[in-house]
Structure formats: C-alpha cells, structure tokens
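Q: Convert this sequence to structure tokens.
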Amino acid sequence: MIILHNRQDRASREFLLTMPEAGHEIIEWYTEPTKVATYMAEHPGLSPSAFPSVVLPVPAYREPERTIRHSESPDDIESIPARDVPAHCELLRCPTDWAEVEARVKAEEERAAS
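A:
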C-alpha cells in the first residue's frame, strides 16, 4: 500500500511505527516532490487532506438499493437503485495504527464478497 506521510506531523510519525516494515511505499509529502508528482499522476483526485493517509484498493462491489426518508411525510421518500461500483482506490485519512488499516481492508473485501 502507499502511505502518504508528513514527517512534521506527530500522528503521521507515530503511525509509521505501527506498520509492518516491508511491502509498502511511503511518500513524504512535503519533501519528495518527484514521488508526489508521480503519485498525483497515477491517482488523480486522491490528495491527502490530513496525515497520515493510506491509499486503499477497494475491490468492485454491488451497492444495494437504498431508500431515504427526507421527512416524516410518506410522500417524501427517495429510492436509490442498486448499482455496480467498479474497483477503485480511496484514502483512509488519519488511521491511528496499522490495525485500523487492516480492519478497513477486511471490511472492503467482505463487502465485495457479499
């Protein structure tokens, strides 16, 4: 996974201490402009708004039909049809430790499998 890191941010530094040592790319956001440019070209629209941020692969899944009630009126109901969501990436912003990342990855995999 890709970790977007700010070495000046205490939470970001503490998060890195909870990670497994191998298998991840760490991009230091404010000190590695070439890596940041490459990342932005490969992941348009996934800019960090907080650090640390982890780029999570989200497998394709089926989003079920939903009904939203906007008020107490029986006529004020909106039905949103089911849809297929293609595989994509999302940012997990400000995880406190690696266990939080693993839990989110597991939840995404379970949603795709159901």
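The longest strand covers residues 53-58.
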